[in-house]
Amino acid sequence: MEPVLSIRNLAISLPPGADRDYAVQNVEFDLNAGEILCVVGESGSGKSMTANALMGLLPDQVAVAQGSAIFEGRDLLALPDTERRKLRGDRIGMIFQEPMTALNPLMRIGDQITEVFEAHNRHTPTERREKALALIQEVGLPDPEKIIRAYPFQLSGGQRQRAMIAMALALDPAILIADEPTTALDVTTQAQILDLIKTIQQRHGMAVMFITHDFGVVAEIADRVIVMRYGDIVEQGSADDVLTTPQHAYTQALLAAIPTDSVPTPVPVTSAPVLEVRDLRKTFVTSGGMFKPKRSVTAIDGVSFTIARGEVLGIVGESGSGKSTVGRAIVRLVEADSGEVILDGQDMNSLTAAELRSARRRVQMIFQDPYASLNPRKKILHALSEGPIVQGVPKAQAYARARELLEIVELDAGAADRYPHEFSGGQRQRIGIARALAMDPDLIIADEAVSALDVSIQAQVLDLLRDLQKRLNLSLMFITHDMRVAAQLCDRVAVMQHGKLVEIGPVSEVFLTPKADYTRSLLAAVPGTDW
Amino acid sequence: MRNLVTASLLTVAMGLPAAAQDSGGRLDIVLQPEPPSLMLGMVQNAPTQLVAGDIFESLLRYDTDLNPQPSLAKSWEISEDALTYTFKLHEDVKWHDGEPFTSADVVFAVDKLLRETNPRLRVSLEHVESITAPDDHTVVFQLKNPFGPFIGVFEAGTMPILPKHIYEGTDYLNNPANNTPIGTGPYKFNEWEKGNYIHLVKNEDYYLDDQPYLDEVYYRIIPDAASRAVAFENGEVDVLPGGSVENWDVKRLVEMDGVCSTGKGWEYFAPHAMAWMNNREGPTADKNFRKAVMYAMDREFVRDVIWNGFGKVATSPVSSKTNFYTDDTIMYDHNAEKAEEMLAASGYDGEEVRILPLPYGETWQRWAEAMKQNLDEVGINSTVVATDVAGWNQKQSDWDFDIAFTYLYQYGDPALGVSRSYLSSNIEKGSPWNNVAGYVNEEVDAMFDEAAVAATPEARQELYTKIQQQLVDDVPVAWLLEIEFPTIYRCEVKDLVTTAIGVNDGLRDAWIEQ
Amino acid sequence: MMDFLKRFSRNRGAVIGALILITVILLAVFAPLIYPDSPWKMVQRPFLPPFSTEGFPLGTDTLGRDVAAGLVHGARVSLIVGLVSTLVALLIGVPLGAFAGFYGGLIDDGAMRFTEFFQTIPNFALAIVLVAILEPTLPTITLAIAIVSWPPVARLVRAEVLSLRKREFVDAARLAGLSNSRILFGHVLPNAMSPIIVMASLMVATAILLESSLSFLGLGDPNIMSWGYMIGAARTVIRSAWWLSFIPGVAILLTVLALNLIGEGLNDALNPRLARKGR
Amino acid sequence: MTLAAAIFGRAAKALITLLLIVILNFFLIHAAPGDPAMVMAGEAGAADEQFIQQLREQFGLDQPLYVQFWNYVSGVLQLDLGYSYRQQMPVLDLILDRLPATLLLTLTAFGMSLLLGVVFGMAAAARQGKWGDSAITSMALLFYATPLFWVALMAVVLFSVKLGWFPAFGYGTVGADLSGFEMVLDRLRHLFLPALTLGLFFMAVYLRMTRSSVLEVSQMDFVKTARSKGLTEGTIRRRHILRNALLPVVTLAGLQAGQLVGGAVLTETVFAWPGIGRLMFESLTARDYNTLLGVFLVSAAMVIAFNIITDIVYRLIDPRI
C-alpha cells in the first residue's frame, strides 16, 4: 500500500531545563491511505508532540531537530511557514481533545466552519454557507440551520466534537489527525464519535492518525498501532498483532495493566451495613437575581442504598449522573435537601455543625485530582497529621502514625518532610489514601480516585487499594465512570443516571445480565468490549 | 475744616491724559476665583468687586492718593460742622435697562438695601442721622456727629448704587435680577458661562461722552495659578489683576517685552498682612513672647524672597499708605538675640505653638514655613496646621489657634479698617474679621472711639499716633508686610489703573492703543 | 525560597527595580545621618540650580532649602504613606474578601455590595473629601488613601478564595473536622498570598502617587517634607525653576517604577504558571 | 436574560447605591470644619456675626442637621439637588451646565486610552520578547508610574508654551464666535492636552492588560484550532484572539471608571476645564454642601453609567451571558 505520509528519523528537541532533551527521537512510520493508525502511549510519551510537529503547531520553544515527513512529494518539515499554512485545514485536518476549549467561545459554529473555506479562498459566501450546512448534516448534528447560528456554549460536548470534525472535514483533507478526540467524553458519546470518525474515514477514504492512551479505543478503531514511550516508538504493527501478541515488554505491561472484564465472583454480603442511605435528594438552584430566572438541576433524585462493612460498592455513571454528588452528600460537603445518611445508626444529616466536625472522621474521601487534593504549601506530614491532631490525637502519636501510613501506601517514610510538588501524580494519590486512612474511618469514599492517572499507574494504585481493602477490611464506596475499573474492584455496583439509581446489584449480575436498558447501553459503549 | 470742596474741575485736570484715546477693542482679564454673584450690593467678594465695579457705580471714586473724585455725583459739599454731605448727581444717567437714574435710587440703595445687606457700610451708617433727596438729582446725608472717614465710604465696593425699580419691595437676596445685574456703569452684563468666562459689553448710553472706550471685556476664569500665567504669556489674557498669579511668576512676567506693571490701585484697600497672636491663652498670651516672635521673624527675607521684593515691612497697625500712619514707634528688626532675651523673659517652657497659615495659595504657605523656621531658630517649637479656606475661617472664628496669618484691608482710614481689629468691644466668636486676637486695652479703646469722631485731621493724627505707639509696644498682633499686588498688563492697555481701587472700577477710562 | 529568588532574579527588570527600591529605602532609613538638619531649614540663596554650588548637589528651592535634603527626608514619608496605607487597605480588604468568598451567600452579597458601593464613588474625589474633613496630617492622609484603595483587594481575595475553596484539599481539611476559620486561615488564605503580595507591591506604588496628587492640590501635611509637597510647592515656579518639580517628580517616577517592576518580578516568580515566556 | 432587563436591573440597583452615597456623603461633608456662610463671609473680606447668621438662615444652615438631611434627601428623591450657596443657582442647573465638558473629557480620554491601549497592547504581544515589545511595555510602565498632574504640567510647558501647538487650558476660544466645523476643530484643540493627560495612565493600564490577555488567549486551544484550519496569523489575531482578549480589558475598564472620573478632578483643575471635577474641588473648599453632594451624586451616576456601558459592550462581545 502506498503511504500518504512517510516520517523518517524525526527528532523534536525540548527547551533546556525540561526533563529530557528530546520530546521524540528516531521516529519513523508510514501513514497509509485509507487506514486508521493509532498512536498509543501514556502521558509524556511524545505522541501529541509528533502530531503537532506534522501540523507545524509546535509550541514556541519546541522545535523539530531533524527528520523528514514526506507528504504528497514534499517534506512537510522543510516547507516554509506560508506553504504549511496552506496545507493546514486543506490537505491535513486536525481535531483536538477538549471540545470545551477547542472552539472559539465567541463565534458562531457556522462562522467557525466557513472560515476554513475563507482561509483557503474557496467558494462564495453563499456557497460556504451551503457547504457548512451540508457538513453539519454529515457529522450527524441535528437541525443544521439552528446549529450554524449557535454558539459553542449552547452545544453539548459530543456535539462540539462533531462540529470540530465538520471543520476538519471541510476541505476533504487527505489526512485527519485526531489528538485524543474522545478522552474528555462520556463513554456513550465516545462510542458515537468513534463511530462517526470511522464512517467518515471510510466515506472519504482519508488516512487517520488517531492519538490515544486507551487500548480500548485502539481495539475499537485501529487498523495499525504504534506504541510510544518516552519519545521512542517501542512497537508497531497491525492492531490485531499488537493487541493479541504484543512483542515489547512495555506494551505487554500496558495491556496487562488494563482492567480486565473478568468479573470477580460475587462475595455475598453478610455483615451489617456500615452505611445506609435512604431517599437522598438534592436539587441545585442557581440563585436568580431580581430579574434572573432561577434555574434548578436535580442532582440526586431519591437515592437509597446500603454498604456493608468490608464491602466495596461501586457507583458508576456518566458525567452529570449525580454520582459524585451522592458521595459529597454523604460526607455533607454538599447539604442534601432531604433523606437520611445513617452511619452506624446515626443520621449524619441531623448533626449540628459542631457534632459534625467530630463525626466527620468516620467517613473519609479520596479525591480525583492528585494536584488539587493536597495543599501545596503544607508538608506531607502536616497533611497526614492535621486531622488526627484536631480530633485529639497527641502530636507525637499522629506524626508516628503518619510515617507508618506512608509505608503502608508503599512510600518512603521520609516523604513526610517533603512538599506535594515533589511527588508524581500516582504518589500523591497514595498520599491521599494515607490521609484518608489516618483518620481511621468506618467508610472511605473514593471519588474517581484513579481517573486522572495513566493506565500503568492506575493499575498500581488499584492494586494498592484492593490490597488495603482486603487487609484492613475497609468499607469502600468507589465512584467511577470507568466500567472496567468498577468491574475489577467492586463487590456490588450501582448505576446512576440523571440523579436516579437505575440498577444496583452484585457486579456479575449488573455486568453480565443487566436489567436496565441504560446499563446495557453503557456496557455496549465501552470501547474494545469485543476484544 | 474742609469746606466746599468741589472736585469736578480737579478731575478733568488729572483724570484725562493728554493724548487722545483710541476707541474699540476687547480686553481679557483674569478672574479668580469665580465669583458667587455679581450683585455687588449683597456680595462683596474680591472677584465680585473686580467685575461688578464696572457694572455698578457709586457716588464717588478715589484717586491713588485717596482724594475723592466725581462719579455718579458730579459735585459735593461738606458743611462746616462736618455734619451735612450734599451730593449733586449727573442728570442724564440711565440704568442699563433704560430707566432713568435719580436720587431716589441712592436713598433706596443706601438707606434700605445696603443697610440690610452690607455689614461694612452698616458700621459707618450708624453715624448717619438721615439720607434725603430734596430733588431728583440731589442727595443729602445728615450725620449725627462728625465722622472723619465718612467721605471715604462712597466707593463702588462699599456703596454701590442699585436700581430701586428692580429691588424695592422684593426679597433682595433672592431677586432673580441678581443673576443679570442692572447698573449704571460703563459696561453692561452680557453673559456668564459658569466656570469659563463673564462677558461685559460697552454701555452705549453711558453719560460721559466717548466713554467707555472698549467694546467688550471678558473676565476669564482660570483656576490654576500656573495656567493663568501661561494664559498671559500666550496673549490669551491682557490683564492680570493683583494677586492672580504667584509672586514667582510676577517677576518673570514683568520682565517680558511689552508687559507693564503697576503697584498702584490698592491704596484704598492697603492690604496689611499680619498674624493674629492669641492674647487669651498659650505662650502668645505673654507680651514678651509676642515681642520675641516679632524679633525672631525675618520679614525682609520674606519680602525679598517670598514676595520678590514687592511690598514693605509693616511697622505699625496702620499701613503707610493709609491716612494717619506714623513711623514714630518701636521698630522690631530681625534680631535673634533680642528674641531669645524676650523669650527668656516670658518664661516660655517649650510648649508647641500652632501656626495657622492663610490658605490662599503657595505664597502664604511658604510664608508660614519660613515663620516656623524663624521661630525654630530662636527656640520656639511650632507646628503648621493644615487647613483650607473653610477651616481657616472656622479656626479663627473659634479662636482655635496660637498664631494665625491673615491680611486685612484698611479702607483708607484707621476708623474703617484698623480699629476693628483692636477694639475690645469687637471681641466676639463667630467671625474672622473682628478683634480675633482678643486684645483688650481700655485706653486704646477710648482713643479709637475719640479719634473716629474727632473734628479735625490734626486732632485725629495726634490720637492715632498715640494709639500706634501703644499698640506697637503691646504687639497684640504680629504685623508682617504692607502687601503690594502688582497689576500686570500689556503696555498697549492705557489708563487701566487710575483709582485707589485699580482695575475694580478702572475700565471706565481704560483704552487700547490701536 | 531559593527557587523564588532564582526565578525573581531571572527577571532583569525586577532586579533593577529591587536595586532602586533598596537605594530609596536606604536613603530613607539613613536620612537623619545623611542630612541631620531639618529639610525645612533655609540654608542658602533660593533657586540655586543643581550642580552649581558645592554642598548643594541638587540646588535649593524657593526659600533656599536644600533640595537634596528634602528628597532624602521625603523618601521616608513616601515610603511610610505607601506601606502603611497598603497595610491598612489589606487589613480591610483581605478579611472582607476572604469572608465573602469563603462563606458566600448573604455575607458575600453584603460584602460585595459594600465593595461596589465604594468603587462607585470616584476614589480620588473621596480621598480629597476625606482628607479635607479629617484635616491633612500624615495619619489622616494615610487613612484616606487606605480607604479608597481596599476595594480591589477585597475583589481579588474574594475571587481567589472562591476558586480555592472548591479545591479538593479544602474538602479534605473539612473532612478532617477542621473549623471554618482554621480552614480559611490555615489552608485557603496562605494559597492566596501570591497574588495578594503582587497586588500589594503595586498598591504601594499607587499610594505614593495618590499622596503626591493630594499634596499637589495642597492637601498634604504641612509639617512633613514629602515628594508630593515638593512638586506642589514648586509648580508655581515650574517655568523659571523647572528642576524643582522635576527632581522630586523623577524620584516618584523611579520609586513607582521600581515597585511596578518588582510587582512584575514577584508575579513571575510567585505564579510561574502565568510567567511570561521568553525571558 | 435580555439586555434591556439586565440594564433595568442594574439601574434599579444603582438607584439604591446612589441613595446610600448621598446619605454617606451628606454626613461626611457636614463633618468637615467650617461652613459655607463662613467661607462666603470670608471672601467678602469683612463680616460681622449678624451677616454670617443672615447667610446661614438664607441657606437653611441654622436648622438642626437631621432637618437639613431630611430636606435634602426628600429633595433628591424628587430630582431636586438643592441650591448652590456659592454659585447662587440651582445645583442641578449648575451641574447640567458643567456636565457636558466632563463627559466630553472623560469619554474622549476613555475612548482614546482604550483604543491606543488595545492597539499597542496587541502590537506588544505580537512582538513578544522582541525589541518592539520591550519598547512598548517600557513606555506603558513609564506612563503608569508618572503622576498625572506632573504629566499635565509638562504637557502644558512643552506643547503649549514651548511649541504653541495646543492651547494650555480652557474649553474653547472665548468669544471667537466660531461655528460648524471650526468650532469642532477649536474644541478638539482644547480637548487634546487634557484628554491626553487623563488618558495616558489608563492607556498604560489597558495596554498592559491587553498584552497579557492576548498572550494568555494565544495559548488557548481554540487558537490552535484556528491555526489548524490554515488561517493566517493576522486573521487569527483579529478574529480569534482579539475578541477573547478584550473581555478582561472591558471588565477592567468598567472597574476603573471610578478612577477615571476621579482623575478628572486633577485634570480639570490644571487645564481650567469647566467640568464637574473642578466644580467638586471648588465647592469642597467653599463648603458648598449642596453642590458638592450633587457632584458626588452625578459622578457616581457617571461611574455607574460607565459600568453599564462596559456591561453592554461585554454582552455584545460575549454571547454567553
UniProtKB/TrEMBL annotation, chain A:
PANTHER family: DIPEPTIDE TRANSPORT ATP-BINDING PROTEIN DPPD, OLIGOPEPTIDE TRANSPORT ATP-BINDING PROTEIN APPD. One of its GO terms (biological process) is peptide transport. Belongs to the ABC transporter superfamily. InterPro entries: AAA+_ATPase, ABC_Ni/Peptide_Import, ABC_transporter-like_ATP-bd, ABC_transporter-like_CS, Oligopep_ABC_C, P-loop_NTPase. The keyword Ribosomal protein does not apply. Keywords: ATP-binding, Cell membrane, Membrane, Nucleotide-binding, Transport. GO terms for molecular function: ATP binding; ATP hydrolysis activity. This is ABC transporter ATP-binding protein. GO terms for cellular component: plasma membrane. It is a peripheral membrane protein. Residues 5-255, 275-523 form the ABC transporter domain. Its main location: membrane. It is found in: Cell inner membrane. Transmembrane segments: none annotated. The keyword Cell membrane applies. Gene3D superfamilies: P-loop containing nucleotide triphosphate hydrolases.
Automatic annotation (TrEMBL), chain B:
One of its GO terms (biological process) is peptide transport. GO terms for cellular component: ATP-binding cassette (ABC) transporter complex; outer membrane-bounded periplasmic space. InterPro entries: Peptide/Ni-bd, SBP_5, SBP_5_dom. Keywords: Signal. GO terms for molecular function: peptide transmembrane transporter activity. Residues 68-425 form the Solute-binding protein family domain. It is found in: Periplasm. The keyword Signal applies. Belongs to the bacterial solute-binding protein 5 family. This is ABC transporter substrate-binding protein. It comes from Roseovarius gahaiensis.
UniProtKB/TrEMBL annotation, chain D:
InterPro entries: BPD_transp_1_N, MetI-like, MetI-like_sf. Keywords: Cell membrane, Membrane, Transmembrane, Transmembrane helix, Transport. One of its GO terms (biological process) is transmembrane transport. This is ABC transporter permease. GO terms for cellular component: plasma membrane. Residues 99-314 form the ABC transmembrane type-1 domain. It comes from Roseovarius gahaiensis. It is found in: Cell membrane. The keyword Protein transport does not apply. Pfam families: BPD_transp_1, BPD_transp_1_N. Belongs to the binding-protein-dependent transport system permease family. It comes from the Bacteria. It is a multi-pass membrane protein. The keyword Kinase does not apply. Its main location: membrane. The chain crosses the membrane at residues 12-32, 99-120, 141-168, 188-207, 245-273, 293-317.
